[in-house]
Amino acid sequence: YAPATYDDDPQMKEVMQQFEDRTSQRFHEYDERMKTTRQKCKDKCDKEIQKIVLKDKIDKELTEKFVTLQTDIQNDAIPTCVCEKSLADKVEKNYMKCTQNLGGIVAPSSGVLAGIAEGALYAWKPKALEAAIAAAKEAGAAMGKAAGDAAGATEVIKLIKLKFHIEELSIGSLDSIINTNTYTNVSFISRSIHSEYSRLGCGNIKSLSFGNNPFCKFVNDGMVAKKVGWGGSANEFIETTVKTVVSDANGVAEAKATEMTATKTPVLEARNIAAVNTTYAGYHTTIIASI
């Protein structure tokens, strides 16, 4: 996908902004928690280093006194591996041990790593990816529903114009009355149409609209009894017709919602996963750089 394609898509921007804000907040919270852990690790390792330095100093002093005393024990009696071991080697070994004891992960190419931070980061990534995919699916479904509702409202308006032969009602145009929130409200739409029927005097045989107005004629013809003695009211006919219109529009809305969800969800998943990977790589680089 091309990011520029969605530069003017406010819904997509909102979804990505929400995901970025949540991710940044979680990393901020994680960093705050890690400060205490890092300090504990540093304090413990500093104490170990002080012990090593002190022990090395004592060893040197004893060695010097040993030479001065000129005892029968010779310097070469001390194992070579001990004599050649430097203070730096001792510090590195114990510092690594300290980090490991605190639950860290030590890389073979480095003396000391921010193991705890890296371990937590590895544990975070799968959960972040799972959350990213879930958020993409949720957003995709929301975008699908929005598109479906818009298509449904458009279909209701089209069918009412086609069936009832009207462009507007006394309370306003069909476009202003029927929208994504009202297009499934059979009762509201039926009452609005019946109000127009009454306003025009469609039920009055003496009215000029009775036989001349296409809207009046459609409703009045629909009220004609199919059997002798079986008549219907204008309100009943209008409501029955509106139910059919809304039912057809619901089918259009569901189809559009399914199509839009299937189209948008993979795009959102790809962007969310890319955001997680980018964030992960950035923090991983920061951890490595701090070693």
How many DSSP H or I helices? 9
Poorly predicted regions are 65-84, 98-117, 284-291
Oligomer: single chain
Mean pLDDT: 72
Q: Supply Rg.
A: 39 Å
Helix content: over 70%
Order of H and E elements: HHHHEEHHHHH
Q: What is the overall shape?
A: rod-shaped
Euclidean distance between termini CA atoms: 37 Å
The counted number of beta strands is 2
Number of domains: 2
Report the major sheet.
Answer: 2 strands, antiparallel
Q: Beta-strand percentage?
A: under 5%
If strands are numbered along the chain, what order do they take across the biggest sheet?
1-2
Alpha-beta content class: mainly alpha
Pfam families: RIFIN
Organism: Plasmodium falciparum (malaria parasite P. falciparum)
Protein name: RIFIN
InterPro entries: EF-hand-dom_pair (IPR011992), VSA_Rifin (IPR006373)
Please describe what this structure looks like.
The protein has 291 residues and is mainly alpha-helical. The chain folds into 2 domains: 3-141 and 280-289; 145-262, no CATH class. Helices cover 75% and strands 1% of the residues. The protein has 9 helices and 2 strands. It has helices at 10-69, 80-83, 87-101, 115-164, 174-177, 186-199, 209-212, 214-223, 234-289; strands at residues 168-169, 172-173. Strands 1-2 form a two-stranded antiparallel ribbon. A hairpin with a 2-residue loop joins β1 and β2 (172-173). The longest helix has 60 residues, at 10-69. The two termini are 37 Å apart. It comes from Plasmodium falciparum (malaria parasite P. falciparum). It holds the Pfam family RIFIN. InterPro entries: EF-hand-dom_pair (IPR011992), VSA_Rifin (IPR006373).
